[in-house]
## 1
Amino acid sequence: MALVTALQSIFYGLLASTGLYALFIGLLTIPVLQDQVIYLHGVTLTWFQDVNIPEQWGFLRNQVTPFFLTTPDGESLHAWHILPLELYRQNQEALSAELRGLALDVKERLSFKLLRDDPSSLLVLYLHGAAGTLGSGWRPPSYRAMSVSAPHRIHTLAIDYRGFGSSSGYPSEKGLLTDAITLAEWVMKEAKIPPSRIVIFAQSIGTAVSLSLIHHMATQPEPALFSGVVLVAPFADVESLTVTYRIAGTVPLLDPIAKFPRLLTWLNKLIIAKWPSKTKLADFIRRCEDMDQGSPGYDVTIIHAEDDYDIP
C-alpha cells in the first residue's frame, strides 16, 4: 500500500510539473512576457542608485558625463560618456569645475570637446547585454578597462537601449537597432569621429544589436566600416539559443521540447525577436570581401567563456 501511495505521489508530482511547464511555455507565447525573457529590461539592478551620478561607481567627479540622445522615432536614450583616466587627469581642474550630473547639452561639456577636437582620439561604443542598466554589475569596471592601453585618448560611450534604465520606450528588435544607429550616427556627425577610429564592444544581446548595426552600415549607399567589433558571448540566433538556454542556469526554456522537432518548429514560429546574428555576420563579411581593393576591411573578435551557462 505504501508503495502504491508513493508511486501515486510521484505520478501526481510529475503531472503537476508537466502542467506548470506547459503553462510556462504557453505564457511565453504572449509577446510582452516573451520580450521580458529575452531582454530582461524590467530587471534594472540599480534600483537604489542614481545613474546620473556615476561617481557612485567609483568614477572621479565628471569623469563620466550622463546625457540623453533622441532617436528618429522620438525615444530618449540615456548615455554615459566616459573619459580615459589620463586625459581626465590632464583636465581635472576644468572638468571638476563643471556642474555634476545630467548634461542638458552635452556638446557644451568639456568632455565632449576633448573627444571631438582631438584628431587622435579613439572611441569604444559599448552595447551591453540583457537586464540591468549601464551602471549594473561589471559594466562600470569594463568601461574603465577599455582605455588601459591608451589612457589619454580612448573614450567610451555606453547607452541604455529603449525600455532599459532611464531610457524611454519599449525594447524590440527594430527598436534596438534604431538605438544603435542613432548612437553611431550621432558620434560620426556630432562628435566628428570617423568609423576608422571607432570600435564596438558588445556582450550577449548587445552582440546581436552590434551585428545588425555593422550590417546596416555596410549596406548603405556609402558603406561605413568600423575599425572593429568585439563580441562577448554572442549567439547564432534566438531560435537556436532557446533550445539550450536556461534561466539563471537552471530552468530550461525549450530543452525538453527540443526532443520533438515539429513542436519546436511550431513554437519557434511564435518567437517575435529573431536576431539572426549568424546570417547578418555572414552577409556582412561577404559584402566586405566584395568591396573594392583598398577598402578598410573588417575586424571581428569573438570572446566566449567555456563555462558560460547562459549562452553555451
## 2
Amino acid sequence: MFSSYFEVDGIEISSSAIDLAKEWDLKTNFIQESVLEFRTSKRYDGIYCYDLLHLFLLKDRKKLIQNCVMHLKEQGVMYFTCFSDRDFNNGVGRNVEEGTYEYKKGKYAHFFTEENLIKHFNDLNILETGSIREYLTHAEKQQEYELRYIVVQKIG
C-alpha cells in the first residue's frame, strides 16, 4: 500500500518472508536484516512498525525504538502496533518480565497497557494512542487480537 505513494524500504530478517512479500509488492526495496541491527545513513520521514514491538523483551524493545528514532528525520512520524493487555492471550505462558510471557521456548509476547506503551515512547511527541481489534484467518480459522497503537513524532 505505501509503495504506491512513497519510496519504501522494508526491513525483514526472514528471507522466505521477503520472497513472499516480493510476490505482493514489486516496488518496495526489501532489506534482509534484523531491525535491531539495521544501520544506514538514510533517514526516513516515516516508520511503520506493525505487530513487532511486542515480540521482544524490554532491553530489545528499547533498542528497537532507539534504532527507529535514529533513522527518523526531524519531525518524522512513527506508527507502532503491539499486543494489548486486553488481548485474550495475555498471561499465556511463563511470566519472564512484567507483562511479558514466554509462550514457546525462546518466543515472547509483551502485552502493553496504554501507560506502558506511552512510557516506551516518552522521549517523543505522542500524537495519538488507541486500540483496534484485528481478525486474522489461518487455515479457515479466524483469530481475534486486541492491539494498541501509538503515533509519535521526533522533535528537535
## 3
Amino acid sequence: MPFARLAEATTPTAHIGLGLAAVGRPGYITLGREADLPPSRSVEALRERAFELLDAAYALGVRYVDAARSYGRSEEFLADWLASRPAADTADVVVGSKWGYTYTADWRTDATAHEVKDHSVAAYDRQRAETAALLGGRLDLYQIHSVTPGSPALTDKELHARLADLAAEGVTVGLSVSGPEQAAAIRAALDVTVGGAPLFRTVQATYNALETSAGPALAEAHDAGLTVLVKEGMANGRLAGEHAPAALRAVAERTGLGCDAVALALVLREPWAGVVLSGAATSVQLVSNLHAAAVDLDAEDLERAGALAEEPAAYWSTRAALPWH
C-alpha cells in the first residue's frame, strides 16, 4: 500500500496532500479563483503555476499529489514535474489520479459542459491508457471519479475484473464519492469484492464543517482497512477568507491562523482521516493551508464549528450553483 509511506512519515504535513484540480485547467468552481491565477490562463502559465505549487509542497513536506483525467492537463503537468526533477528526489511522492470523467471544456472557462461522466468499461480502458501514457510506473493510486449509489461502477463485474487486474499490477484501486448520498455510496463500495477479497483500498470523499454527513461511513471504511482521503475541506472556498462564516472566523481569530487552516484542521482531527487535500492555487494559500497541522482546537472551537453543518441536499445544491471561474 503506497499510503504506508505516508503513515511512516514524521513531518507535520505528511497527511496533507496537494490536489491539482484548481491549476490543471483554466476554469473551476472555487470561490475567489479569478483573482488567484495569472491574467493569462494559457497552458504554459498554468504549467508554471503547477510547478511552483509542486515545488513548494514538496519542500514543505507534502508527499501526496492528487490529479484526475478530468482536471484538464493535471496529469501532464505532474508527469512533466516529476520528469524534470531527479528521480531520487521525488521517489517518496505518492501519486494518485482518477478516471470516470472526461474533460470537455477545450481550455475554455465559458464552456457549457466542463466534464462528462462515464463509468463504463470502455471509458476505463481509454482513460487508463491515457493515464499510463503520461504517468507510467509513477501511478500509485487510481480511483473511480465521483461514484454515487446508482453508478454502474458498483455493480459492473467486468469493470471489477479490470480493476482487480490493475491492483495485481501493484496499483492501489479506490473510488471517490460525491453528492448528498456519499455515505450510501461508501457503504455499497465496502461490499464490492473480487474473488472474495475487497476491491477498493481507498475512498475519497467531501467532508468539511458544512458537509459532515459522510463521517460515520468514512469511519466504517477506515475500520475496514481503507485509507480515507478528504477533498473539498474548505468547501470550494466557502470556508476561506471573506467567505468564511462568522463562527469560523472567530476560531481563526483566537488561534491567530487563517480560516482555511482552521477548516482543514477540523478535518485532520478526525481519527479516520488519512490524507486531507489542499486545493491551493497559490503558494501563499498552500503555506496557509499547511498551518492546519499546527492549529490547536479547544472544546469551544469544536462547538462553534459543529453548529455550521448544513443538510446534505442544501449543501450540494449550493455547490452545484457555484460558477466556473
## 4
Amino acid sequence: MQQRGMVIVGAGQTGGRAALTLREQGYDGRIVLIGDEPAPPYERPPLSKAFLTGKAEAAAFTFAAEDALRKAGIELRAPARAAAIDRGRQEIVLAGGERIPYDRLLLATGRAARRLPLAPAVADRVHYLRTLADADRLKQGLARGGDLVVIGGGFIGLEVAASAVALGCRVTVVELAPRLLARAVPVPLAEIVAARHRAAGVELILNATVRALGVAEGGGLRVELLDGRVLAADHVLAGIGAVPRDRLAAEAGLPVDGGIVVDAMLATSDPMIFAAGDVCAFPCGNGGLARLEAWKNADAQGALAARNMLGAGEAYRELPWFWSDQYELTLQVAGWPERGARLVERSVPGGRLLFHLDAAARLVGVSSIGPASVAKEVLLARMLLERGLSPAAAQLADPAQKLKALLR
C-alpha cells in the first residue's frame, strides 16, 4: 500500500513554503507537492518588474529549486493537475487517474487571472500576467517595443506599465473606475501614482469601458472604447482582477464563499483538509471573511498551515500588508485602511505617510508612498499597527515625535 503523508496541491508561494516548513518542523513522513506549472516554487512579485525588464532571471526568485526539494525529501509533481479529491478514501486523484493518499491535505491552488470574453483569433494575442510562462511571453513581446494598451488600472497593470516604459514602449492605461487603484489604495496616494505615470508619458484613460477588441488591418490590435475612441496596439495586457481557484474544494463539497472557507487555523470543514494563500477565505476579525492576494499573506499562511497540519492549533493573526514598486516609488498598505474614519498625515521626506484611525481613534491601517528613504518610517508605523498601539493623532502627525519612542 502506498504510504500516506502530507499532500499539497499548488506549488506556488504558499505550497512551497508549506512543504519546506513541514520539514523544518521535523516532519519525516512523505510530502508530495503537486503543481500545474513546470517550474518549481517561485515568488511572483518580480514577474511584473525585474523579470519583465531583464534585471532578474527566474533562478533569482525561485525559492525552492528542484535540487533543494529533492534533498529535503519532497516529491515535486510538476506539471501535474489534481482533478478531484476523494474525501472518503483521503486521496487526491490526478488528471491521469493516479491516486495519491494523504493524512492531511493542503489546498494552495491560488488564483487565476480573470479573462476577457474574446473570440479565439483575438484572445490568443491578449496577454495576462499570473505565471512565469505568462511573463516570459509578455517579456518577448515588449522587447520589440511599440504600443502597449493596459486594460485595468490595478497593481499588475500599473507595474507592467512602468516596466514597459523602461523598455521603451508607449503605454496607455484604460481604467473603468474614475481613478487608479480604486479598490485598495487611499485617494491621496493613488493621485501620486497617477501623476508619476503621466510624468513618464503614460496616457491614462479613466471612466472608460472597453467595448471590443479586434485585429487591425496592419496586423496589430484595435481596442474600441464605449465612447467611440479606438486605440491602436501592438500589445494588449488585461489586468482586470483574479478569481480564486476553488473548483477542487467546491466539487468535493467543501464550503466556498469567494474562496475556500477556513477557520482561524486555516482548516476547512473537513479537519483533514486545510486551505491557505490567495484561494482561502478566512476570518478577518470583524465577523466576516477576507481573501487576500498578497505575497506576505501567501507566505505566512503557507507556514502556518504546515504547522497546523502537524497539530499546532495556531490561529492566523498576521495583519495584511502589501507593496507595489513603480518607477522609483514604493507604495505600501498595511492593516485595514478601509475601516478608517479619519486620515492623519505625517510629513516624511520625499513621500507621504498616512495613518488610518477608526471612529474610536484606534489605529487600523497605515499607507505610504515614496522612495526607499521612507522605508524606515513605514516599518515603524507598521510595528505600531501590529502591536495594537494607538498613539494620539497629534503624536502621529508630528515629525518631531519619533515613532520608535511610541513603541515603548
